[in-house]
Every structure is written in structure tokens, then in C-alpha cells.
Amino acid sequence: MPRAVYLVMTTDPSIVTRAEQPYVGVRSAVTMETISTIADRIPELFGWLASHGVAPAGPPFLRYRMIDMDRRLDIEAGVPVAAATGDDQVHVDVLPAGRYVTLTHVGHFDGLAATTGELLAWAAGEGLTWDMTETPDGQAWNCRLEIYVTNPAEQPDPATWETQLAFRLAD
Length: 171
What we know:
The protein is of the alpha+beta class. The protein has a single domain (9-168), classed as Regulatory factor, effector binding domain (Multidrug-efflux Transporter 1 Regulator Bmrr, Chain A, Alpha-Beta Barrel), CATH 3.20.80. Helices cover 17% and strands 40% of the residues. The chain has helices spanning 36-39, 42-51, 112-126, and strands at residues 9-10, 14-18, 21-30, 61-68, 72-80, 91-95, 98-106, 132-135, 138-141, 144-148, 162-168. Strands 1, 2, 3, 4, 5, 6, 7, 8, 9, 10 and 11 form an eleven-stranded antiparallel beta sheet that branches. A hairpin with a 2-residue loop joins β8 and β9.
């Protein structure tokens, strides 16, 4: 069966300062083939928030902690909150304050890998340094986010889905 082709647009990259942001999340090691298993846990987080009377303070995201594209990725699915406590289902953490390179991807999630590559190439061309360390297990990122601005359940047209990439720069 032929794969659908979607038009993808992006905004120009920019550097912004983000404040510290607490969140609740779940973490998992996945591969590129199983990455959807962590993204599929986002509704579980919203259910946990609702059952604990905690309102989301922003759109959900994936936080890439460790990246080795050929072997495994250590990723958190998270939802920003004003304040919360975790339990045996979710943990509480904080997205660090700092300078981030951001870019908005408009289109299907299938285009995010290419958009990410474009963002990384742009930053390299600008001489920017990421808040990331190369390790034997892969790239350890302090904060590399895919923020899902559009909820596909509310907006079924993938051509309109907005995903913001926000990658923290080294101090």
C-alpha cells in the first residue's frame, strides 16, 4: 500500500529564553521502530492528571534524554504542570531554564526526522553548541523537546498539526 505524502512547512529557527517548567512524565527506552510506544503514553498522563485534579500547564511533549539512532533512545513523555507530586505511575521533573533553539514543524509527524535534521544543520552552520554530551551510549541531551501544539484527536487533518522543536543550548 503506498504511503501518504504530506506537505510539511517549518518556521525559521530562532533562539528563545525559556523559564524552568515542572512536568509529570513517564520514561522508557525505545528504538526507532518502537518510538510510538512512548508517544502513545501521553493520553495516560492526561488521565493521571485528571484523576489527581491537576491541570496541564501546556501541551504535551517528548523529551529525548539519550539518543543512539541505531540502538536505542531514552525518552520521556511529559505534560507541563504548575506543581505536582509523582507516584508509582508518573514522576515529576523540571525542564531547565535557558536558551533554546526553536522551530515549528507544520505537518504530519512523519516529517519530524527531516525537520530535526534541518534544525541541527542550521545550528551547526551558525556555530551553536548544544547542551549535550557524547557518551559511549549515545548523545546525552539535557533538554531536547518535541512539543505537540496540536492535538490530533481534535484536529484530524495532519497537514495542520504543529510540533515545536526546542533544543537547549550550552551555557
